[in-house]
């Protein structure tokens, strides 16, 4: 039987390390990452929407390093019951706040004595020997995640924790697949340092180089900022039709919290002259606009966001915008705003 795994995990080292392991195990797997609150709810809905559209025969919804409320667990049970597909649920976590849910639902496996990465490793290692070679990595994550300061692997864990925390160059809302690939690349490249005497210092010294290695894509050397900008522009160009929006007959591209808007926006417009403007929105309701001379985005910002600025660079605030963690939901809102000028 063909199996597809949808793996939802947290956004820290422990969360990504769980997925790093399952990426080695399952051939057909898709990754989702979430913080707490409404984001979990949106991700669970997205996962089951994908299941209903997918062609695989069996599905596993795997959740790690996130504790779910009883209401969220009941939602999962109801979704599973109503689904036309054969779907199993499995949650592997270590947060004591999930105790009530774990006592009710048999698929909710809770162990407060170790990290979610160690729980995930121990759950799958007997059946999937391929991950046995990552036992040291698992113990490193465990040492820092449950704060075992006397453990000799604690310092390596601290560096790995920062490696994940500070590697936000690829927006996970816009490009979840590439974001996961980036995290897995960095964690794989960290492995050789674990055997060295002062590996935590050497890894710390090498983080910048490892990031440049990922983003260079075989290109000649450049600053990390320039390499990242070109990489992001190439992703936007690849996905530009799905990210297209329109305003008064002008064609634009919509991004979410892309960062470095001036550089990325202008470079995208240069490389894609069929687009007239670049629009970035954030969870704080702010909007940034860039243009190539075809449209006055200062006037556009004034109309849709009570803002203004220059003809080719402007911004404002979309007071009616409701933040979301799913790009298509964000895009639908912006399309409605652009059609009705209801953003102020």
Supply Rg.
Answer: 22 Å
Helix content: 40-55%
Task: Determine the number of helices (DSSP H or I, runs of at least 4 residues).
Answer: 13
Strand proportion, as a percent range, falls in: 15-25%
Query: What strand order characterises the main sheet?
Result: 6-7-8-9-11-10
Order of helices and strands: EHEHEHEHEHHHHHHEEHEEHEEH
User: What is the SS-derived class?
Assistant: alpha/beta
**Overall pLDDT score:** 96
Shape: globular
Number of domains: 2
Number of strands: 11
The poorly predicted ranges are none
Distance between the termini: 52 Å
CATH domain fold name of the largest domain: Rossmann fold
Q: Can you tell me about this structure?
A:
With 344 residues, the protein is an alpha/beta fold. It has two domains: 3-153, Rossmann fold, CATH 3.40.50; 239-340, Diaminopimelate Epimerase, Chain A, domain 1. 47% of the residues lie in helices and 17% in strands. It is built from 13 helices and eleven strands. It has helices at 13-25, 38-53, 70-82, 99-104, 116-124, 135-145, 154-165, 176-190, 199-216, 224-238, 261-271, 297-305, 327-340, and strands at 3-9, 29-33, 58-64, 86-93, 108-110, 244-247, 250-256, 277-281, 286-291, 308-309, 313-317. The strands form two sheets. A six-stranded mixed β-sheet has the order 6-7-8-9-11-10. It has a five-stranded parallel β-sheet with strand order 2-1-3-4-5, sandwiched between helices. The protein is globular.
